[in-house]
Design brief:
Elements lengths: L5 E5 L24 H5 L36 H15 L6 H20 L12 H11 L7 E5 L8 H10 L2 E5 L8 H7 L4 E7 L11 H10 L3 E5 L11 H4 L3 E3 L9
Parallel strand pairs: 1-3, 2-3, 2-4, 4-5, 5-6
Helix pairs in contact: 4-5
Length: about 260
């Protein structure tokens, strides 16, 4: 127990150090992952062939870039738009305020809304995923003594705001341990209880890409009137997501990975 906000690991409890040194995030290489268990997940994949899209990027023929899970390359059109913006900043008297401050953001919201199956009026443009998680933490009704469910080794942008909230409101933080059988879903569902206020999880875990079954987690959270916060940065653009189906209380995503932002 840590007196600045209690932190538990669901199932087996591992050594937990103080909040201040951040070691609980577990950034050591995950060499203990049971790859055999991972191969038994049997994901249902839909494949289809598309033509080569290399011409849309500035990628030379000898380069094959596959690491959008880290950082996507800029589209040529994106680079051109960035240069246009720099030129506008150099000559601010040429900026057309309605297009710059209203029309372009509306187009961006509409494009994102189409990807996640939602009305664009429910989309807000924010500077980072951590900013969005902090907005969720600041606005959800959470009472002292309740708990927040997170995943072990969860990406920090979906952790720090909850830890700070736990300090202020005397909350419990439950970190669901990486399961030995390779399946997160049942362990997340088991961690949700009558004291849970928020379940804040990714759509896919950033360390191994494991796909979280958000529909089942949403159902269990709803039984206990708990909010569901989803950071979809690791998967959005590569994996389908429907707000209408999953019904999260907050969906947050950065755009620099599979969304090619």
């Amino acid at each position: 127990m840590i007196n600045t906000g209690r932190i538990y690991h669901h199932k087996q409890v591992k050594a937990i150090t103080s909040i201040e040194n951040n070691n609980y995030l577990g950034y050591s290489p995950p060499d203990y992952i049971d790859l055999g268990a991972m191969t038994r997940m049997e994901p249902k994949l839909t494949t289809h062939q598309i033509d080569c899209q290399r011409h849309l990027f500035s990628i030379s023929p000898e380069i094959t870039y596959l690491n959008c899970a880290y950082f996507s390359p800029a589209l040529n059109t994106q680079a051109e738009a960035g240069l246009d913006s720099i030129e506008q900043k150099r000559h601010p008297w040429t900026i057309e305020s309605n297009e710059t401050f209203f029309s372009m953001p509306d187009k961006c919201r509409a494009a994102f809304a189409k990807i996640v199956d939602i009305d664009s009026r429910n989309v807000a443009l924010i500077p980072s995923a951590s900013y969005g998680v902090n907005l969720a933490a600041s606005n959800l009704p959470i009472q002292p003594g309740q708990n927040i469910v997170l995943l072990e080794e969860q990406f920090p942008s979906n952790v720090y705001a909850w830890l700070e909230l736990a300090k202020r409101k005397n909350l419990e933080i439950i970190f669901v341990e990486r399961p030995e059988d390779g399946s997160w879903n049942d362990h997340i569902i088991d961690a949700i209880n009558s004291h849970t206020a928020v379940v804040s999880v990714p759509h896919s875990h950033w360390t191994d890409g494991y796909a979280i079954n958000l529909e089942d987690i949403r159902a269990k959270a709803r039984q206990h009137h708990a909010a569901l916060v989803v950071d979809a940065t690791q998967s959005l653009g590569a994996k389908p997501f429907s707000v209408k189906d999953i019904q999260p209380d907050f969906l947050i995503s950065s755009g620099y990975k599979w969304l090619l932002g």
